[in-house]
Amino acid sequence: MTTLAQLKPRRPSGRPVWEEKPSRLGQLGKGTVIAIIIAVVVVPLWVVVVTSLSSTETINSAGGYVFLPREFNPSAYIVIFQGGQVTDAVLVSTIVTVIGTAVSLSVTVLAAYGLSRTGTLLHRPILFYFLLTFLIYPGMIPSYLVVTGLGLKDNLLALVLPAAVSAFNLVVLRAFFMGIPTELLDSARIDGAGEFRILFRIVLPLSKAVTAVVGLFYAVGYWNTFFNAVLYLDRNDLQPVQRVLQMFILAGQSPTNAGAGTVVHLPGIGYTAPPNLAIKMAVVVVTLVPALIIYPFVQRHFTKGVIVGAIKG
Amino acid sequence: MSSPSVVGTAVTPRTKEAVSSRMSVAARLRRDWPLILMCIPAMLLLAVFHYLPALGNVIAFQDYNPFAGDSPVQAFLHSEWIGFGNFQYLFETPAFWDSVRNTLGITAFQLVFYFPIPILLAMLLNSIMSPRIRSLVQSVVYLPHFFSWVLVVSLFQMMLGGAGLIAQTAREAGFTAPDFMTNPDTFYFLITSQAIWKDAGWGMIVFLAALAAIDPNLYEAAAADGAGRGRRFWHVTLPGLRPVIVLLLILRLGDALNVGFEQFYLQREAVGRDASEVLDTFVYYQGISVQQWGVGAAAGLFKALVGLLLIVGANKVAHKLGEQGIYAKK
Questions:
Q1: What distance in Å separates residue A62's CA from the closest CA in chain B?
Q2: Is A3 within the bounds of a domain?
Q3: Closest CA–CA distance from residue A57 to any residue of chain B (Å)
Q4: How far, in Å, CA of A77 to CA of B79, rounded?
Q5: What is the pLDDT of residues A75-130, one digit of tens each?
Q6: A73: closest CA of chain B, how far (Å)
Q7: For the purposes of burial, counting CB atoms within 10 Å of the CB of A296, is it exposed (0-12), middle (13-18) or buried (19 or more)?
Q8: Contact B325, B246 (CB under 8 A)
Q9: For this UniProt entry, which segments traverse the membrane (chain B) (predicted)?
Q10: Touching check for B127 and chain A: CB below 8 Å?
Q11: Which of B3, B59, B225, B291 has its CA 20 to 30 A from that of B153?
Q12: A121 and A170 share a domain?
């Protein structure tokens, strides 16, 4: 398996003898472009984190967003996690992500293994059934009618079940399972192992990395779920974090129901009520942090084969 | 069973299709039922939440009235069939054609301004010597792919909005920065830069793989023959990237009517309907907000059918050009 880090450009070490020496100007230009690209991604995230940890005075003297950190003031986080809308939302999103990923991963792994050997009965029609989802879309209106018709309005399952199976992830897993040597599976069969035992004792332990990547894909999808919540959830206490983020940042709702105005005691700082902007930024950080945490895993395990195979569909 | 068995009949190699085809269906079922069983949960989920709604698109031919019955199924059975009435209404609605025009305009705009970016990024990254800088850049540019659209649009709002960081910095320096987030005239630029920020780094991966697959000896041979940087790029790098570029171009063309939904839904209030309405948002507002279910479904069905034609057509073109396309030629 080739990891991304190993996806090396053509030269493993140094410049080959036949290549021209780079010009000073060229190198400088390249360095500048790279620095700009990194800054464009990192600066917004930096500003959000620093502002969320700032006090009213710092925010006022900066005129709004804070670039240079002057203090570490976690009062905004304390306030949003004291109960109220943000706390509910984090809870809801966590539940949806955990349950959703468990459901999705189980059904996808099972189906991917079930389809991993050519020549089994009904192999082609079943594969076609899954691949057809790439060409035929369900359509928003009928989906809405089906989900509400099943009584899933204001039910968190409405965020899970419609998104539970991704044929894309299934194809990725299946391609990997197909690469496992048949001799290995045949020998297990000779020893009397059934298909389920082979899957859980041999195939899955050999596919930890790719299974983890697919699981993380599903998890990111569930954490980022937004529009299904717009469609299917009316109750305020059921909204996931992305909805709350939209309300506070884009719809301009004031974060009072996140606890703005609440005074908290911070040892060493005294009593403070965090500014609205810091609370908003703390909400942004909360939606962002899970992606940041899982990201190194994705990057480490992500394989060249996964990506290219996936693109080929 | 004609295949060699080791222990009784329980063990049958499945590697060779030739062996399978000589077995009876009953024997294959006896052998393969656990595998089929494993596919069933995923198939059921897709049946209910993918294929059933796909069939449900037939309400495009109905004057669907959700109050005609107690459940959507009852309502469906009791709603009146009106043939192509919804389509007729749709095609006479200027707002529908506006959304089609916006969708295609955005696709065209992004083909020009978005599509080349991942290719350029991949080549830039490929030219970096230091492995540490290379993996740093990779880590940074892949990251936004994992952010939600809500987060991306929010971050843009904080940077470029009327009260954003840039406006704030400009104010302190005594200038007024334009508010990009509410200006309908620059909306194409706005959404394209958001798309680039979020996904261009991720899109680079495919091209990196293609670049890594180019035989380094080709470069050396070209250099030995006196080819400079430009010539090596033109005669070695570009031909190496060509299959991937063609494939992705086809995928994008086949997807011309899909420009995303959430990004437009989130910014519709700020820039107004005229600039931001695309087919998907039209379906939503017509169908679910205004509750003209049949008309919304008709717009959705129109989009699905044209999209299917586009994909099949794009593949035909790919096969004509001698490329593989998304699915192989049968």
A1: 9
A2: no
A3: 16
A4: 52
A5: 889 888 888 889 999 999 999 999 999 999 999 999 999 999 888 889 999 999 99
A6: 21
A7: exposed
A8: no
A9: 33-52, 104-125, 146-167, 187-212, 233-251, 293-312
A10: yes
A11: B291
A12: yes
Same domain, A40 and A101: no
Q: Of A15, A110, A145, which has the smallest distance from its Cβ to B42's Cβ?
A: A110
CA distance A250 to chain B (A): 6
- CA distance linking residue A104 with residue B276, whole number of Å: 33
Cβ separation A295–B6 shorter than 8 A: no
Query: Is residue A262 a part of any domain in this protein?
Result: yes
**CA–CA distances in Å: residue B78 to residues A146, B81, B83, B88:** 16, 9, 15, 22
User: Does residue A57 share a domain with residue A83?
Assistant: no
Same domain, residue pair A58 and A112: no
Q: How many CB atoms are located within 10 Å of the residue B130 CB?
A: 8
A136 and B46 in contact (C-beta within 8 Å)? no
A281 & A238 share domain: yes
Cα separation, B161 vs B1, in Å, equals 72
Tell me whether B52 touches chain A (CB under 8 Å): yes
B226 contact residues in A (CB cutoff 8 A): none
pLDDT in tens, chain B (330 residues): 333 333 333 444 444 444 555 778 888 888 889 999 999 999 999 999 999 999 988 889 988 888 887 777 788 888 888 888 899 999 999 999 999 999 999 999 999 999 999 999 999 998 887 888 888 898 899 899 999 999 999 999 989 888 888 888 888 888 888 888 888 889 999 999 999 999 999 899 889 888 988 998 999 999 999 888 889 999 999 999 988 898 888 888 888 888 889 999 999 988 888 889 999 999 999 888 888 889 999 999 999 888 888 888 888 887 887 776 666 554
Q: Write down which residue in A14, A41, A72 finishes a domain.
A: A72
A58 and A79 co-located in one domain:
no
A308–B209: do the CB atoms touch at under 8 Å?
yes
A29 plus A136 within the same structural domain = no
With a CB cutoff of 8 Å and minimum separation 6, the contacts of B52 are: A138, A142, A146
Choosing among B7, B11, B14, which should be mutated to test the A contact, i.e. which has the most A CBs within 10 A? B14
Nearest to A117 among B14, B147, B296 (CB): B14
Q: Do A14 and B129 touch (CB under 8 A)?
A: yes
Question: CB–CB of B135 and A5 under 8 A?
Answer: yes
Range of the domain at A298: 73-313
Same domain flag for A67 and A170: no
Question: What are B320-328's contacts with CB under 8 Å, separation 24+?
Answer: B321/B246, B323/B243, B323/B246, B323/B247, B323/B250, B324/B243, B324/B247, B325/B247, B325/B250, B326/A312, B326/A313, B326/B247, B326/B250, B326/B251, B326/B254, B327/A313
The number of beta carbons lying within 10 Å of the beta carbon of residue B240 is 18
Which alpha helices (H) appear in B129-215, and where do they start and end? Answer: 131-142, 149-160, 165-172, 187-212
**Block residue for tokens 């570009």:** B238
Total beta-carbon pairs less than 8 A apart between chain A and chain B:
323
Q: In chain B, what are the domains?
A: 17-61 (no CATH), 85-320 (1.10.3720.10)
Predicted ipTM beyond 0.85 = yes
Whether A140 and B300 lie within 8 Å, measured CB to CB = yes
